[in-house]
Inverse folding.
């Protein structure tokens, strides 16, 4: 079991949502935090709320140099990174036929490259760190339940989340001998700023049924913390989702029919 007290945890996308909730819960447990996001004012306010003792770093993960600078600042401040949480990302409600080249490039740059560039910057030092509670380090990637199965108007977002899952699966095997744990996290819809941000970016809100379950960011953060203390390959904060999305991959035709019917009920003018 990994001890959270004095553990160094670096979190991207820490100014809101899951990243913020994770920072709050880890602070309560005595972790030392490096918090990154584009909104420095929000990071400053969060750090003040937590007593002012953590590292904050303005970082746009879509920029490789920002990722490298955040990792370097964390290592300079703390001397190591025990857990890197790649959480920064956003969604957009678009049909595949509507996505522009610029929109594709932007969402891939943030959601995928923002993950891989942080990992690429952190790994060389992680590999040489002394063991702490039998692990040198951990990489935790916040993906989505949609990494396993996409739906209408979520294809671009889901594609980046599926790519993150593939990165996690490969990296977990590649770094096993180095005692670096790799964990992917697959939340369902979470009560955060994500939905408002997606509407602002895409011009319309992502499709959601009023009967779909929703989790709090704190619930997701608590499940993530459990997987930091006891590393595991995947975290599904809403356990039933793992089975539902697993069955969807086994029965794609049936799933297509069910999802399409729901989509048509929500968008009666759709030509799907």
């Amino acid at each position: 079991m990994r001890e959270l007290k004095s553990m160094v945890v670096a979190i991207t996308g820490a100014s809101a949502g899951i990243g913020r909730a994770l920072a709050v819960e880890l602070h309560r447990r005595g972790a030392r935090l490096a918090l990154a996001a584009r909104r420095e004012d929000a990071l400053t306010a969060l750090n003040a709320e937590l007593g002012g003792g953590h590292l904050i770093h303005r970082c746009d993960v879509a920029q490789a140099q920002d990722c490298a600078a955040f990792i370097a600042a964390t290592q300079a401040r703390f001397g190591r990174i025990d857990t890197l949480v790649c959480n920064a990302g956003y969604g957009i409600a678009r049909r595949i036929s509507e996505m522009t080249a610029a929109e594709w490039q932007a969402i891939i740059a943030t959601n995928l490259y923002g993950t891989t560039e942080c990992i690429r910057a952190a790994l060389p030092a992680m590999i040489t760190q002394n063991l702490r509670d039998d692990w040198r380090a951990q990489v935790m990637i916040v993906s989505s339940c949609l990494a396993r199965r996409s739906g209408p108007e979520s294809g671009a977002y889901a594609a980046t989340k599926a790519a993150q899952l593939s990165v996690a699966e490969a990296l977990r095997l590649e770094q096993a001998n180095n005692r670096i744990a790799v964990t992917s996290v697959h939340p369902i819809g979470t009560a955060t700023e994500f939905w408002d941000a997606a509407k602002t970016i895409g011009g319309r809100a992502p499709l959601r049924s009023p009967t779909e379950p929703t989790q709090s960011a704190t619930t997701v953060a608590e499940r993530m913390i459990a997987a930091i203390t006891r590393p595991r390959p995947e975290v599904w904060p809403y356990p039933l989702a793992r089975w539902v999305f697993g069955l969807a991959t086994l029965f794609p035709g049936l799933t297509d029919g069910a999802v399409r019917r729901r989509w048509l009920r929500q968008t009666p003018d759709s030509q799907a």
Notes: The beta strands are 8-12, 32-37, 55-58, 83-86, 137-142, 180-185, 190-191, 215-216, 234-235.
